[in-house]
From TrEMBL:
Keywords in alphabetical order: DNA-binding, Membrane, Transcription, Transcription regulation, Transmembrane, Transmembrane helix
Residues covered by the HTH araC/xylS-type domain: 674-772
Transmembrane segments: 20-41, 310-330
Keyword Phosphoprotein: no
Protein's name according to its UniProt entry: AraC family transcriptional regulator
Pfam families: HTH_18 (PF12833)
Amino acid sequence: MNRFFGPRSFNIALFWQFFASYFILFLIPVIIASTFTYVFVVKLIEQEAENSNNITIRNFSTQTDTAFSSLQANMINLLGTSNLKSAMKLFEEPVKDPDYYEITHYLMDQLNTLDTGDIISNAYFYFAKYDLVIGFNTETSKENFFQYFYPVSDQEKQEYLDNFSGKKMMHFTKPYTLHQKILFTNDIVSSSSSISAVMSYPFNSDHPDVYLIVNMKLGELSKHIRIQEKWVAGTAIVDVTGNVITRAGESIVNPQKLLDAARSHSEGALYSDDQLQALSYVKSRFNDAWYYVSLIDLETLLKPAHRIRMFNLVFLGFFLVLGGLVSYYLSKRLYKPILEIKSGLTSHLRKSVVPVQQKGNDYDFIKQFSKLLISENKELSELVSGMSPIVQEDFIAKMLSGEYRDNLSIELYAREIDFVYERNVARTVLCIEIQYYSWVLEQISETSKTFMMVELKERILKSASGTVWLCQTKPDMLACVVQHSLFLHMGPKEVSEVVSLILQQFNPYFKAAIGVGKKVHDIGELYLSYDSALAMLQHKSLHSRVEILSEENAWEDRTQLDSFLSSDEVNRIFNIYKSRNYAKLLKSVFDLLDMAVVKNASAYQVKGLCSDVLNTWIRAVETERKDLNIPFYYSLFEKLNRCATWDEIKQCFEHIHTIMFPLVEPSDRSAQFAEILDYIHQHYGEELSVEKFAQQLNMSVSHFSRTFKETVGEKYVEYITKHRLMMSKRYLLETDMTIDVISEKVGYLGRTSFIRTFCKYEGITPGKYRTIHHQ
């Protein structure tokens, strides 16, 4: 058996060639013919079922519409001839007289004349404005009626009573449960499902006086709409809102499925979105909002088609097996050459390798496949070798961040990426922070920074080979894990000094600081050493030299510097600003920086102090200047934070000082105020508010008034007043205008204020002034 079906028995390629020919020439036509037959039969069965179902559902819809139309006509006739208006006048009387009982029995008789048929159980009048219900053989209060004579289920009672409001014209309630009780007791004998048709009277009133309710048995109504075909799983009457009026059969109509069918299919057509059921519908002629729906059991309907499909599958399976046996026999007979060579390579084949296309005979194919294996293995090996340093550096970064702390997990991950390390070795982490100078950042590209970082790594690894691991944890941070080696006499101190010498070669481009962490003996605690190294970097200074910061020398020659300005210093800056001595503002900052240099303050302390100074400057400038915004201030703080040395911070403050406190040349100020004076001379009769000119020059009102007096020589108000008086005297002497006209023309709102001002400056009234000079 093994020899017959073993790998040496036949050539699989030849087998598939023969089988493919057999499949194309013989099986495909058979499959097409079988599929066509099956589809044709299914289509024929579905079409016949659709026609039969269409006829049946239209018949029962016509019958049901006729029954409901007849019921509606009877209800309208009953309400129209029942003399309800006369009855309600008697109901309003406080005492029940014989006429009351006579009209009540008359209404009962009218209800008994209603053609009940086989689906109607009873009917009654529900008076909306009176506590009265009249049935076939009873007249009682609403509470007694629904408790003893017509006991609706407690859970559905309120929803049922809600139907007796507003105008109703043949309104059908939702199905509800009706109990049958022994009269005047609460003993339930049986329960049944019912549905009611409600009609109000007067017919067109939104607040009707009485409702006629006709109750129907759901069981009898379901029998009325049942279709007896085996493949019909159920029938139902459904409205457009998805409410099922009544149904027959065990299957439940899906309202959404019905609405989809109504939108996409015509009446009578079968609609299905699954393989189990289909439905067809006919719109009611009695109520436009109703659909008569029939559910089709596709499995029952298509049983003949399923038998045909099973026969086709057996038929195809037989020919498939026959074709396989024939192809196997032919391939076995024709397979001869190079069997030994191919068998020797079969054990080396891997599914993950994509084979080349066969060219020539099988021998050529085997040679090509062997070359492909060798080439792909070589490429894979080179790829893994190139990726290994990157993966290992990422692994070190995760240990430093604390993501890997468990020794067992670290050992397993290290084994997967071929990361070799000794477990019982003390280690210390060095954090090398790189801060490019401002002028370098403006010129250097990200690519150049990347190449510079790669060169730095290579020099460190070459100088401290075998004792350090390197990884870049942040764009400006390089972590160096030092393994303590007694044999090589290399520890964190020695490696720090070597790295410091290397960093000095890059000093023209960036300022560097080395933070030395604490020693740890467990590889899972490397993150602790890394955190302590980062903490050491907080003590770096603003000197341009490379700094080594450890617990031994981090606080060396350092004194405490307050990173915030005192309230007195803040007030002093505000006073200097108000005095317009801007040069003194810059000098005060330089004095603070010189004091920080003497105290050898850390960069963290100095930048905190400088940020407070800058914030005070901004608060002072904001009182007068409106052209500076939040993004601009943010850029100033960002520029300050990028400073790496004392010189950069001083240059930064010089730049900020130039922007925030520009010096206004006297010639420029004179030109500005000359334009303002010219405007005053042209528009002296209008309102000339000081706020308008202050805003025009981007000054506060006090600053404008002070600058106006310095430039013009007079206060703003005095100057305008004198010019107006000069023009008024000209009008007094050269024209015949009245005092009122002149006062308005020179900008005064009234005669009184003009005369008062004229007397204050001239000593006499305007009229006296005109009289004296006209003599």
